[in-house]
Amino acid sequence: MTTVQKIKEIEDEMAKTQKNKATSYHLGQLKAKLAKLRRELIAPSSGGGGGTGVGFDVARTGVASVGFVGFPSVGKSTLMSKLTGTHSEVSAIDFTTLTTVPGTVKVHGAPIQILDLPGIIEGAADGKGRGRQVIAVARTVNLIFIVLDVLKPLGDKKVVLRLRVREHTAKFLAQIIENELEGFGIRLNKKPPNITVRKKEKGGIAITHTVPLTNIDQDDIKGILNEFKLSNCDVAIREPNATADDLVDVIEGNRIYIPAIYVLNKIDAISIEELDLLYKIPMSVPISSKEWLNIDELIEKMWESLDLVRVYTKPRGLAPDYNAPVVLRRGKCSVEDFCNAIHKEIAKQMKYAIVWGSSAKHARGQKVGLEHILEDEDVVHISKK
Ligand SMILES: Nc1nc2c(ncn2[C@@H]2O[C@H](COP(=O)(O)OP(=O)(O)OP(=O)(O)O)[C@@H](O)[C@H]2O)c(=O)[nH]1
Ligand SMILES: [K+]
Ligand SMILES: [Mg+2]
Questions:
Q1: Calpha distance 72→179 (Å, rounded)
Q2: 64-189+257-306 has CATH 3.40.50.300 classification
């Protein structure tokens, strides 16, 4: 039996099994088994489709990257070409784009790399088409655009029905793509669960929790631990509404947490009433890449989601240069990171820095060292030794 077949078998068994006190332990074991099989599928050594993104990797430029993921012909390349000015083949024929096509767009002075990717279909994570190479690239970006075609498929002819169909279809299609990414260890718009599992030499299993366990019970947990052969460990759950999947994610470890925006494309071809309903889908931005509608909102949402930190340099006796920010990533935005982004020698030459802006304690500027954490739109002066 292939790994994909084994996965299918376990999924079927889980679907058939009613969750109750008697089955909890077994369901936990199945969840863990499933995660292990999926890990095999992602492993570069496994055949068929290939999981490494070989041939799909491109040189990375800019401070952050956005990957376009979606079914074929939803308009990914149309959007990418217009946004970046880089040519990526567009046509009404599915699977026009065959590999990663990179481009760059400057947003608020920050160069952002855009990766146009081939279309994926259901079963992509299991090796259908080039799905696994595409998703392997998606694992490396800072933001995913899940691009959807709001025209597909056309619903009922009756208007009221069609309105709902569009909204539900969009959600349904988004879910298929999301499942494919999840199958590859990508978690969208989610933080790593606040759960720790600490292995010990002996002493058995100890489970503690600072929040009520609503979606998982002791038997689920024990079933999962058993399948992972963790017979001596401390499990501490601090995540409200933690699930069995959360625990599996923590034990498996190689999960990647990436923000995502649902880009609902081709709104040029729908009515205002339909558009109003589409706006209800969380984390979504309706656009038309062909007619260039609502692209400003998309770029603003993209900027917010990337959560970048712009820092302006102030040379002695001169005004700060607001046109050329040094752009840093959240979590890597200390004064030292700022120095290194300019030149690797600067941190060594620095005596102190003066910072103005929201990270500074007072308006007249604060004297700080290399470890100081900067905020978006801070102004920094580096004083050399
Ligand atoms: N009406 C309308 N058509 C669009 C829009 N954007 C793209 N299209 C059309 O949709 C078709 C597919 O566009 P592509 O940009 O090639 O789509 P893709 O997602 O890159 O397709 P693959 O690379 O094959 O996955 C083309 O005929 C485009 O002209 C839009 O905003 N509105
Ligand atoms: K196409
Ligand atoms: Mg394309």
A1: 17
A2: yes
* Tokens describing residue 328: 């840093």
Give the 3-state secondary structure of residue 310.
strand
Nearest-atom index, ligand 1, CA of 81: 15
Tokens for 151, please give them: 């025209």
Specify the fold of 310-384: Ubiquitin-like (UB roll) (3.10.20)
Nearest atom in ligand 1 to the alpha carbon of residue 291 is 31
Each residue's pLDDT, cut to its tens digit, for the chain (385 residues) gives 888 889 889 999 999 998 888 899 999 999 999 999 888 877 654 444 444 445 688 888 889 999 999 999 999 999 999 999 999 999 999 999 999 999 999 999 899 999 999 999 888 877 777 888 899 999 999 999 999 998 875 444 445 555 667 778 888 888 999 999 998 899 999 999 999 999 999 999 999 999 999 999 999 999 999 999 999 999 999 999 999 999 999 999 989 999 999 999 999 998 888 888 888 888 999 999 999 999 999 999 999 999 999 999 999 889 998 888 999 999 999 999 999 999 989 999 999 999 999 999 988 899 999 999 999 999 999 999 8
Q: Could you tell me if the CB of 77 is within 6 A of ligand 1?
A: yes
Give the pTM.
0.88
Tell me how many degrees the CA angle 183-279-267 measures, rounded to the nearest 5: 90
Query: Residue whose CA is closest, atom 32 of ligand 1?
Result: 266
Closest residue by Cα to atom 30, ligand 1, is 266
CA of 68 to the centre of ligand 3 (A): 9
User: What tokens appear for 86 in the block?
Assistant: 């880089």
User: In the chain, what are the domain boundaries?
Assistant: 3-42+193-254, 64-189+257-306, 310-384
**Entry field: residues in the chain:** 385
**For the sheet containing 233-237, what is the strand order?**
195-199, 233-237, 205-209
Inter-residue contact 134 to 57 (CB < 8 Å): no
Q: Is residue 166 in contact with ligand 1, taking CB distance under 6 Å?
A: no
